[in-house]
């Protein structure tokens, strides 16, 4: 996974001396009265595999089109490698784009598709042939040069589109839902393949996706977007473990979120009344939070331990009854209803081989979690 980069991988966003490779400054793009992108600023560093993540209509595709030059922002600037590209047309930018549909020419062979942009640039035939061979070797399609797109599988067509996009050696490659047309198994395989190719060529990738698992698997960092704005930018692990808002916590993975009011704080330990649960709970926050402030408390399903007897010592305990069970092969998901009517989602990993769920409908269980595993959400 790219979020667990190979040894030696630097994190340029952590270095104050490192200059951003792509800089988006206060970009706004409207369509009539609709703010598709609303005052967005963002830095992406050289060699990153960066993702713009969000649901339909959040503005991620519009922002990608602004980077490509297909849209001109109403306000703000776009700089690539220190050069203002805000009003530079697409064909003059050091940028290429890979579309979800792949947009391959059906009447051309694989080699002709990859060579198309190079011919447009007037490269000599020998240089084109050499570049095409390099690109097809890179995406492991050597030997398929003479095939037409309709003679290829979906995964092969995706790799032809990638080879064509990389053939012109762009400084920046933009990917618009690049794996959306693939089935689940092929998509998972291609995620790792695409990351390996990106690391080999060293080109900066910016990808748009609505699939949070895809973004988590492939990205060095992710910008989560909602309603035209960026709500949080961080590494996949930090987004998952330390979400800044309720939206991010709920969008990235499964989560239980309780409405609560702060009672007191001792160091980083926050005591709060969880109204949904009808009990006091303990969480941790590095920020001071005054008593009486309403907050959200988020706990991931896999961080909740399950016991059939009440534990003698624990930060947080509540009992409930199993009302739903989902068996997913590697894990089982349990929905546990508390006395107050709240439903908690709990996840149990299947370490031992068994065809039956560990617990059954109607079982009374104690749910236990540590204060350090609960995230405090103030917005």
Features of the shown structure:
alpha+beta, five-stranded antiparallel β-sheet, OB fold (Dihydrolipoamide Acetyltransferase, E2P), globular, Rossmann fold, 379 residues, six-stranded mixed β-sheet
The value of Rg in angstroms is: 24 Å
Secondary structure class reads alpha+beta
* Distinct helical segment count: 8
Q: Describe the main β-sheet briefly.
A: 6 strands, mixed
CATH superfamily of the largest domain: P-loop containing nucleotide triphosphate hydrolases
Order of helices and strands: EEEHEEEHHHEHEHEEHHEEEEEEEEEE
* Low-confidence blocks of residues: none
Helix content: 10-25%
The number of E-state strands comes to 20
- Which CATH architecture of the largest domain is right? 3-Layer(aba) Sandwich
CATH T-level fold name of the largest domain: Rossmann fold
The shape is globular
The CA-CA distance between the termini, in Å, is 30 Å
Walk across the major sheet and give the strand order: 6-7-8-3-9-10
Query: What is the CATH class of the largest domain?
Result: Alpha Beta
Mean of the pLDDT scores? 89
**What's the number of structural domains?**
2
Q: What is the strand content?
A: 25-35%
């Amino acid at each position: 996974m790219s979020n667990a980069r190979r040894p030696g991988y630097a994190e340029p966003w952590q270095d104050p001396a490192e200059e951003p490779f792509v800089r988006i400054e206060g970009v706004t793009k409207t369509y009539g009265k609709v703010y598709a992108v609303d005052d967005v600023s963002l830095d992406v560093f050289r060699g990153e595999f960066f993702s713009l993540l969000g649901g339909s209509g959040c503005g991620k595709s519009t922002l990608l089109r602004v980077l490509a030059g297909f849209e001109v922002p109403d306000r703000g600037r776009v700089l690539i490698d220190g050069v203002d590209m805000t009003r530079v047309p697409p064909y003059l930018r050091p940028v290429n784009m890979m579309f979800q549909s792949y947009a391959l020419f059906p009447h051309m062979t694989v080699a002709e598709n990859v060579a198309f942009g190079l011919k447009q640039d007037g490269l000599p035939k020998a240089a084109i042939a050499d570049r095409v061979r390099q690109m097809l070797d890179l995406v492991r399609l050597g030997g398929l040069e003479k095939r037409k797109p309709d003679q290829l599988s979906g995964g092969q067509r995706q790799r032809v589109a990638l080879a064509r996009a990389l053939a012109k050696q762009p400084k920046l490659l933009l990917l618009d839902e690049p794996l959306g047309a693939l089935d689940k198994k092929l998509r998972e395989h291609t995620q790792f393949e695409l990351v390996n190719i990106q690391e080999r060529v060293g080109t900066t990738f910016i990808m748009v996706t609505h699939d949070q698992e895809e973004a988590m698997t492939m990205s060095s960092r992710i910008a989560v977007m909602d309603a035209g704005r960026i709500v949080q930018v961080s590494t996949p692990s930090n987004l998952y473990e330390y979400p800044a808002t309720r939206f991010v916590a709920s969008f990235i993975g499964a989560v239980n979120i309780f409405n609560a009011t702060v009672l007191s704080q001792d160091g980083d330990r926050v005591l709060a009344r969880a109204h949904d649960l009808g009990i006091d709970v303990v969480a941790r926050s590095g920020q001071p939070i005054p008593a009486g402030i309403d907050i959200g408390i988020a706990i991931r399903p896999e961080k909740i331990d399950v016991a059939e007897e009440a534990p003698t010592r624990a930060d947080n305990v509540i009992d409930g009854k199993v009302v739903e069970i989902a068996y997913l092969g590697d894990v089982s998901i349990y929905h546990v209803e508390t006395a107050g009517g709240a439903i908690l989602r709990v996840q149990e990993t299947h370490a031992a081989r068994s065809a039956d769920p560990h617990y059954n409908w109607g079982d009374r269980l104690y749910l236990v979690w540590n204060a350090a595993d609960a995230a405090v959400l103030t917005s």
